[in-house]
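Last lecture ended with a question: if I hand you only a sequence, what can you say about the shape of the protein? Today we answer it with a concrete record. The protein is G-protein coupled receptors family 1 profile domain-containing protein. Below, first the input exactly as provided, then the predicted structure, then a couple of comments.
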Amino acid sequence: MSTDADLTTTINYVTMQINRHAVTILILFGTVGNILNICVLTENTLRKIPCAIYLCWSSVSALVFIWSGLLTRVLQGYNVNWPNQNPYMCKIRLFLLSVSWAMAAWALVGASMDRFLCSNHSAIYRGWSTCRTAKRYLIGILTFFVLLFAQVFYCFEASVPNVPVACYGRDLPCRIFNDWISISVDIVIPSIFLAVFGTLTIRNARPRVVHPRISSIQVAIASNINNNNNNAAPSRNNDRNLTRMLLIQVCIVFVLDLPFGVYRAYASLTANVSKSTYRTATENLTYAVVILLVYFTHSTSFYLYTLTGTLYRATFKRIRDRCFNRGQRMH
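The predicted structure:
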């Protein structure tokens, strides 16, 4: 018995340290990274590219998601649990968290769809890759998710016992509904869309060898076509850079978000089961680790983009040099 009690104490201590330190580091990295993302993606060289609009909205949503979800984890590490015990704070926080998580995921879906459209060989499909389409899509999904998660104000309550976090569904129907909404809307369906459109984009990017019969008229305008292709080369390079950046983030989101969906379903189904202190401690530790994985995907996009995107690095370097020169002039 004493061995189990000691092990439980150790597990609780590890969970507390994760909430105190690992989560704090993730908040700092995520906040700095997403703010830098917004600065880079709103630069003149990128702001008129539809994919950059999607990624910028994803970063803004990720900022809200990080602070609405992780701040309470840090406070829990210091045994401060009032946001989850206050009924108003509980509902508002969960509403912001739910909408922002969905927006961050589906903005990436929009970016993946845009990469497919702009890389398509059909001019009709490429015509849909516009800033106007991006803005309409983002406003549309924001409206949809606000309406979808309005039920949070009814379903969630503060100080719910025997669950990973005190701010939780009030009863089993609410828990099952919200868990399946989270699993499907935030994880499974976006992952399917990301995988499908990522695969289609890669297929579009493959070079095609075409041997057309060239007429005299085509020969006459060949020089003009070459000039247009040379002018379009920077745009194609930008597209390839953004596509590579996005596909890498898609893979990370797909792998790291799935454990959370599995655990949420397990937590809801066992909420009314009597649990030992050892089992409760183990589940709390598992939840703390799973939470880190989910928020990691939305906290490291800036660092991934910097490593994988030459256009992104060049834009960031230009902003950094401009700020540095401005600081020198002020001194």
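Comments.
1. The chain has 14 helices and two strands.
2. Confidence is low (pLDDT under 50) at residues 208-234.
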